[in-house]
Amino acid sequence: xxxxxxxxxxxxxxxxxxxxxxxxxxxxxxxxxxxxxxxxxxxxxxxxxxxxxxxxxxxxxxxxxxxxxxxxxxxxxxxxxxxxxxxxxxxxxxxxxxxxxxxxxxxxxxxxxxxxxxxxxxxxxxxxxxxxxxxxxxxxxxxxxxxxxxxxxxxxxxxxxxxxxxxxxxxxxxxxxxxxxxxxxxxxxxxxxxxxxxxxxxxxxxxxxxxxxxxxxxxxxxxxxxxxxxxxxxxxxxxxxxxxxxxxxxxxxxxxxxxxxxxxxxxxxxxxxxxxxxxxxxxxxxxxxxxxxxxxx
Length: 297
Known about the structure:
This protein is an alpha/beta fold. The chain has helices at about 20, 50-55, 70-80, 115-130, 150-165, 210-215, 235-245, and strands spanning about 110-115, 135, 175-180, 195, 220-225, 250-255, 265, 290. It has one domain (about 25-190, about 200-270). It is built from 7 helices and 8 strands. It is globular and about 45 Å long.
C-alpha cells in the first residue's frame, strides 16, 4: 500500500533533475561491499520503491502519510549513467547485533531517533527487527560537495535492506513506532553562491499532532540522542507543543554498546525556528544550487 506521498516514485520515467544530469563524483558506499548479511542481495534494493518498502511503515500503518521518500527516489537518479558508484557502507555505524528491545518501548511510545543519519539507520534496523514500525524523515538530495551528506545515510539504508526484508516484524496494531532522523540535517552553515545547499528541517507535516497520536494510543514521546543529549533546534518546537498538549516527553541515549539508556524526563523551552534560507527542490524535498547575486541594477 502506497500513500499519495509516494507518488514521486511514479514520476521517475518522466522527469530528470537538472542538477543530477551534471552530477559528478557522488559516491554512495562501495559497490563491492557486502551487506549486513554478508551477501550482495542489497543490489535488489537499488530500486527506490523496493528500498522504501523495507524502510517505511507497514502496509496498514497509520504512519504511512509521514514517511519521506526523497532520499529513496534519489537512488533512481544516481542509477542512471555509465559510472555508478553505489553500494552499502562497509561497517555497522552502530552495533545493532547487541540490541535488545527495552521493556519501556511498548505500544504507547513514539521514538524520535535523532542521530547522524547512518547511526539512525542502524538503530532503526535494530528497532524494526524487534517489532517497531518505522518512518523515515530523510528529505534531501545527495550531491557531490553538498553541505549535508545524505549519501552516507543511503549507504547505511542499503546495508540493512536485505536484513530487514528477511527479519523485520511490525505489530498489527499501531505502535511502537520510530521516526528516523539525521541530526546533521541543519548543516553547519548556510550555502555560498554556487554551492549545492541541501540542508533541511523537520516540517510540520512530518510530525503527527497530539490528537492523531492519542487516537492511536500514543502517550509518550522519547527522543533518542547521543551522549551529548543535544536536541536539534528544528524539532524543539514540535516536542514542546506535544508536551504542552499533554503527552509525556523523555530522552534516552543510544549507547555505543548497542543499547538504549533508560528514559529520563526531557524539559525543553519552546524555540521559534526560522525556516528562512533553506532551498527546496523543484522535485520535492530540499536541495538546490545557491544562486549567484544578480549583477543587474
